[in-house]
Amino acid sequence: MSVDRSVIRELETIVGAEHVRTDPGDVEPYSRDATPAFRAVPDAVAWPGTAEEVAAILKLATSRRVPVIPRGAGSNLCAATVAERGGIVVVLTRMDKILEVSADELLARVETGVSTAALADTAAAQGLLYAPDPGSRTVSTVGGNVAMCAGGLRGLKYGVTRNYVLGTTVVLPTGEIMKTGGRLWKDVAGYDLTRLLTGSEGTLGVLTELTVALLPMPATSNTGVAYFPTLADAGRAVDAIIGHGIVPATLEFLDAKCIGAVEQYARLGLRDDAGALLLFGDDGAQDVVDRNLERIGEQCTATGAMEVTLAENIARAQALLEARRCSLPALSRLGTMTILEDATVPRPRLAEMVDRIDAIAHAHDVPVATFGHAGDGNLHPTIVVDQHDDAAIKRAHEAFGEVFKAAISMDGTITGEHGVGAAKLPYLIDRLGADQMALLRRIKAAFDPAGILNPGKLGS
Q1: What pLDDT, on the 0 to 100 scale, is given for residue 402?
Q2: Nearest-angstrom CA–CA distance, 266 and 297
Q3: In what order do the strands lie in the sheet with 20-21?
Q4: pLDDT value of residue 162
Q5: Hey, is 90 helix, strand or coil?
Q6: What's the CA gap between 175 and 173, in Å, rounded?
Q7: Is the dihedral of CA 44, 49, 51, 56 positive or negative?
Q8: In this predicted model, what pLDDT tens digit does every residue of 212-267 receive, in sequence order?
Q9: How far apart are CA 199 and CA 400, in angstroms?
């Protein structure tokens, strides 16, 4: 153990010995998150229960120069919570209270460890919508979603997590407990620290409480699916849909490999002779939803759809959404290691980017399937390999490096919603340039002068 025993004793004093683990078997599960091929064993794992306990941990860590890695449920896909330099992993899942849901103000206050699904369900019980809808919603925490600025299936119409964060309680690495933002939808007093903390990946402070915006629950919703001979045809349909002023709540795509894997996995009755499918849906007043889905169907037909169908009931609508949500587990059945990445390009270049991904995968001799958010150009290329085949894993990572560079060359980015973490840090300078990277480091130093918070990640 590289952390002095005296630090562990102080840690136990802060949170209680029952909330600290140092034995190898106890800390090993926290050596990794949902990102394959990244692993680093921390020296200790601690579960604080209050902001004051988090503050005491960070003050101790700063004084002793011990790395601290904040962690929620560990569902992120960029190795953002891997303890690359050892230290203490601070798990925030004990802080799981929903403190307030206000229908009058359209907001909720939650502790950082509340699951996304728990917040959404509690809001829904009061006729309210928490719009962020990441694929990991049943396990991911609200604090983790804010730290990573998670996206989701409703991102086209409703935006991503940062659009709903009104205020935070954050503990700085030096131990100060600070509140940013508040309960207001409009507040431009000073620099927008709330927005800066959102997506900072646990490198600037530890979030302990969030105030998030809610919306009235839409009266109804429905979903449809359109099958196309090729993904290029589906891409043209997306352009036509958006070009006709239709912004649906959901506009997702699966390529042929994903369709096959999902059908084998879930038996949803998807067509296996299509080159791609578009999953589309909308919510709101019944007449608006009906009209929008009809118009979407018309645009799909006009751009070469093989078939367009609407869900005939709620159960079928949920089944169609499940086709998109289960893409990752379906593909994971094809091998023992699944490497899922994300990159984003301008929407009109979506099909071109998929073609580039296929060419890169062929050149590196790795199988790739691609699905994602067609409405905003966010792709999720996925490679499944044998976890014991080191050569294939190496080729997969080399292929993804070329995918990121291809996205940048198309005026895109290396990540639309998964984050940078450790996995994509080598490519961040290609996306931002040296001047922005230097500015990130100065911002990091202002928040974290000792450099103890999630070292080896953003701003390091």
Answers
A1: 97
A2: 25
A3: 20-21, 44-46, 88-91, 68-71
A4: 97
A5: strand
A6: 5
A7: negative
A8: 999 999 999 999 999 999 988 998 999 999 999 999 999 999 999 999 999 988 88
A9: 22
3-class secondary-structure state, position 397: helix
To the question of domain 220-325 being in CATH 1.10.3130.10, the answer is no
Length of the chain: 460
Instruction: Determine how many CB atoms are found less than 10 A away from the CB of residue 117.
Output: 15
By three-state DSSP, how is residue 411 classified? coil
Instruction: Return the SS3 of 323.
Output: helix
Task: Give Cα separations from 394 to 32, 179, 241, 386, 427 (angstroms).
Answer: 19, 44, 39, 11, 16
First to last CA, the chain: 23
Q: Which residue has the tokens 């794992």?
A: 45
pLDDT value at residue 351: 86
197: CB partners within 8 A, 6+ apart: 146, 147, 168, 170, 180, 204, 205, 207
CA distance 265 to 261: 6
The CATH class of the 98-216 domain is alpha beta
Residue 403 and residue 360 in contact, taking contact as beta carbons nearer than 8 Å: yes
**Segments in 333-422 forming alpha helices (H):** 350-363, 390-409
Tokens linked to 328: 């990752």
pTM of the predicted model over 0.85: yes
Alpha-carbon 458 to chain mean position: 16
Q: Which numeric CATH code is attached to 335-421?
A: 3.30.70.2740
How many CA atoms lie within 13 Å of 438's alpha carbon, on the beta-carbon side? Answer: 3
Which residue, among 57, 312, 34, has the nearest Cα to 205 in the 3D structure?
57
Structure tokens at 48: 């604080």
Token digits for 252?
């997702």
- What single-letter amino acid sits at 147? A
Euclidean distance between CA atoms 429 and 404, whole angstroms: 12
CA distance 263 to 376: 25
Asked whether the CA dihedral 311, 316, 322, 327 is positive or negative, the reply is negative
Q: Indicate if the alpha-carbon torsion angle 425, 426, 431, 434 is positive or negative.
A: positive
- At 1 the pLDDT is 55
For residue 252, which of 379, 116, 129, 369 has the smallest C-alpha distance? 379
Pairing of strands 307-310, 220-228: antiparallel
Where do the CATH 3.30.70.2740 domains begin and end in the chain? 335-421
